[in-house]
Amino acid sequence: MDLSHLAGRGVFTAWARPGVFDQVKLGPHGQLEWPGDLDLCPDSLYLTLTGKRPEDVFAGPDQAPSDA
Questions:
Q1: Who's near 21: CB < 8 A, 6+ residues apart?
Q2: What is the pTM of this model?
């Protein structure tokens, strides 16, 4: 996935500092994260990579089990 449109903008200016981009790791919820509370939402990444819509993946209130 190309993230170049984020580089140098807002909080992503941190990536320009030497070594910061290389410090990527997976967070506890599967998010890509860097030092300084910089992270990318795993749900958003999944939707972008698969081309799916939120309603294709996530159940809304009208789709909850009747015994819930």
A1: 15, 34
A2: 0.66
